[in-house]
């Protein structure tokens, strides 16, 4: 009888990927990433990390540690192009800096 842990035998797709994320193999990789990061975001280094993000899916189901990064929620959203909580403030700061530089020219 097959269970969720039999993700290796499933056809590739969303169901297989979600089963893989529940597997002992993924949990071991995830734990190694958490150990490497010490629980802090590996992008901003300023907030506690909550998500393990794939830098690449080139080795999906057989990832290497360098394929994965531990991110806080904001950095994970930014990584996916969703902006994050501070994105609006960041844009305004950049715009103001550009205007300041232009005014000094």
Order the strands across the largest sheet as they lie in space.
Answer: 1-2
The tally of domains stands at: 1
Distance between the termini: 73 Å
* Number of β-strand runs: 2
Helix content: 40-55%
Task: List the uncertain runs.
Answer: none
Structural class: mainly alpha
Q: Please work out how many helical segments DSSP would assign.
A: 4
- Secondary-structure element series: HHEEHH
Query: What is Rg?
Result: 19 Å
Indicate the overall shape. elongated
| Proportion of residues in extended strands | 5-15%
Give the oligomer, counting copies of the same chain as homo and different chains as hetero. single chain
> Strand count, sense and closure of the main sheet?
2 strands, antiparallel
Could you tell me the mean pLDDT?
86
What does this entry look like structurally?
- With 105 residues, the chain is mainly alpha-helical.
- It is built from 4 helices and 2 strands.
- 11% of the residues are buried.
- The mean pLDDT is 86.
Keywords:
2 strands; mainly alpha; 105 residues
Write the layout of secondary structure elements.
Blueprint: H1 14-21, H2 24-37, E1 51-54, E2 68-71, H3 73-79, H4 87-104
Concise structural overview:
It contains 4 helices and 2 strands, in the order ααββαα. It is mostly helical.
């Amino acid at each position: 009888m097959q269970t969720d842990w039999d993700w290796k035998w499933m056809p590739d797709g969303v169901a297989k990927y979600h089963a893989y994320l529940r597997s002992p193999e993924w949990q071991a990789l995830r734990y190694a990433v958490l150990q490497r990061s010490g629980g802090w975001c590996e992008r901003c280094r300023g907030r506690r990390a909550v998500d393990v993000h794939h830098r690449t899916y080139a080795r999906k189901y057989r990832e290497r540690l360098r394929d994965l990064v531990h991110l806080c929620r904001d950095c994970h959203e930014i990584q996916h192009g969703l902006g994050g909580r501070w994105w609006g403030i960041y844009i305004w700061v950049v715009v103001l800096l550009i205007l300041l530089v232009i005014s000094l020219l």
